[in-house]
Amino acid sequence: MHLIIPTDYNPKLSVKETEAAIRYIRETFQDEFGAAMNLSRMSAPMFVEQSTGLNDNLNGVETPVHFSMKDMPDQDIEVVHSLAKWKRAALKRYGFGMHEGLYTNMNAIRKDEDLDNIHSIYVDQWDWEKVIAKDERNLDTLKATVRQIFKVLKHMEHEVWYKYPQAVYHLPDAIHFVTTQELEDRWPDKTPKEREDAITKELGCVFLMQIGGPLKSGKRHDGRAPDYDDWQLNGDILFWYEPLQHALEISSMGIRVDEDALRRQLKAAHAEDRLRFPFHQQLLAGELPYTIGGGIGQSRVCMLLLGKAHVGEVQASVWPQEMLDQCAAANIQIL
């Protein structure tokens, strides 16, 4: 457990006012985001059958919460980590056309998460996915989509400022693009997280690209499952966050693997056994659309726009008593 306590923290909104602001931000953002990206809101599962291969494997070491059910006693059911692969299959199943997409209100449990000001075992995000053409699997498409998302976030800042001027956290005016290799070249002696802090403090907001594969040093900047993002065409949206004095990740996203990238990345991750799953077989057979997609943290967006010191101020979860006591003493109002 790691906790940052800002000096003389003032939450500015009461718990009741914060709850109203959370509802306003979530409802407004998803409507504006869906319209800007041509996405339809869809229902999504909270759990999937392990045998489908649809669950997000994250870094490959996290264990999903799982259970069996009375009417399917032989099936292992897993609570989702995210819907990274489910969405792509859903676009095919529901008949979405070119440049159409979906978003969902995704709720997940990541029980192995290391808790701090921005990490919880409860994950709530807008998971989204959009059909693109094969020849659009490039950096231009990726960057244009990132700029669309940033534009919606900036507009939300103005919306929140109009409704809660005393509480809004102001965002930078532009997003910058940088690769993980560029960061390693510039700061070879820093850790990946220290590099993220340094570049976001310098530029305000960055889209950090190419996450998952090894860098020139042989080390990875961060882990990424090998069977959804193309590691050459993905990234994270990061803001420098003054209240905590470090980078705050709002979104992880990317252009999804094609057949070649799937084989290449599964081999690199020593995870070729996943090719037995129905999802992977469909992808290799060319039965799934080419897509771009990602997740945008709902609580993270609320935390950012309201200048909160702890994600527990904008979501209800479970926290160690020691953390609750320290937050209470620092005027951090955990829900």
Automatic annotation (TrEMBL):
CDD domains: AsnA (cd00645)
BP terms from Gene Ontology: L-asparagine biosynthetic process
Domain (Aminoacyl-transfer RNA synthetases class-II family profile) ranges: 23-320
GO MF annotation: an example: transferase activity
Annotated pathway: Amino-acid biosynthesis; L-asparagine biosynthesis; L-asparagine from L-aspartate (ammonia route): step 1/1
Keyword Mitochondrion: no
Name by which UniProt lists this protein: Aspartate--ammonia ligase
PANTHER family registered for this protein in UniProt: ASPARTATE--AMMONIA LIGASE
Protein EC: 6.3.1.1
Record keywords, A-Z: Amino-acid biosynthesis, Asparagine biosynthesis, ATP-binding, Cytoplasm, Ligase, Nucleotide-binding
Coiled coil: none
Catalytic activity: L-aspartate + NH4(+) + ATP = L-asparagine + AMP + diphosphate + H(+)
Gene3D superfamilies: Bira Bifunctional Protein, Domain 2 (3.30.930.10)
SUPFAM superfamilies listed in its UniProt record: Class II aaRS and biotin synthetases
Localization of this protein: Cytoplasm
GO cellular component assignments: cytosol
Family statement drawn from the similarity comment of this UniProt entry: Belongs to the class-II aminoacyl-tRNA synthetase family. AsnA subfamily.
